[in-house]
Amino acid sequence: MNAVNLGCRLMLAIVFALAALGKARGHKPFEEFIQTLENFGLPRFLAGAPLAATLILAEATSALLLLVGMGAGYVLALLLLAGFTLGLAWVIHREKKVACRCFGASNAPVSAAHLVRNGLLLAITVIGAVTHAAGSGGLAVGMGVIAGTVGALAGLFVTRWDDLVFLFQGPQSLAALSRTRRD
Predict the structure, then answer these.
(1) Are 121 and 66 in contact (CB under 8 A)?
(2) 135: burial class by Cβ within 10 Å (0-12, 13-18, 19+)?
(3) How far apart are CA 93 and CA 165, in angstroms?
(4) What are the tens digits of pLDDT across the range 135-148?
(5) Whole-structure pTM value
(6) Fewer CB in a 10 Å sphere around the end CB: N or C, the chain?
């Protein structure tokens, strides 16, 4: 294992674990996630509870596989991120105002900022997968602590992406956008 692989694994594991927890923490967040899948343009019969539960389970599985150091965690993360990114791009292309609900509670509408975030996560996934495949041998404890801390903090940073965008752009909730359209 090398430091880059450890940092990437922890970052992605935190992102996927918090994404799964945010959507599955109660009935309301789960129902809102189902609604978001419908709003993304998926047919109603496909965007129901089975798909939502499958995606949440896949996120949790990816986080677990990454934590135990299995390369399959990177593969699953890459598939999930590619699918989510295509969904975000589809919503932006159609110019629909849909809440992301990537981590459950956010009411921020899908925007190019979400594509930037997912592009960053895709790059981290590829870098982690490549270093995982190439890495072998031990890692010094001090370097492991530093890499793990940086990875964990980066993961938390990414889960607060909408807050960071808010700091730079100001509020753009769906409610505000709806009011703007009526004016």
Answers:
(1) no
(2) middle
(3) 20
(4) 766 778 888 899 88
(5) 0.84
(6) C
Contacts of 108 (CB under 8 A, 6+ apart): 99, 100, 162, 165, 166, 172, 173
Tokens 């010094």 correspond to what residue? 140
Residue 34 CB partners (closer than 8 Å, separation 6+): 47, 48, 49, 52
The structure tokens 């965008």 sit at 165
Helix (H) or strand (E) holding 56: helix 49-67
Give dist(CA 133, CA 115) in Å, integer: 27
Contact status, residue 52 vs residue 135, Cβ threshold 8 Å: no
Beta bridge pairs of residue 99: 109
Length of the chain, in residues:
183
* Nearest CA-CA partner of 97 in 111, 87, 118: 111
Note the pLDDT tens digit of each residue in 95-116: 888 888 887 777 778 889 899 9
Q: Which two tokens stand for residue 87?
A: 């969904």
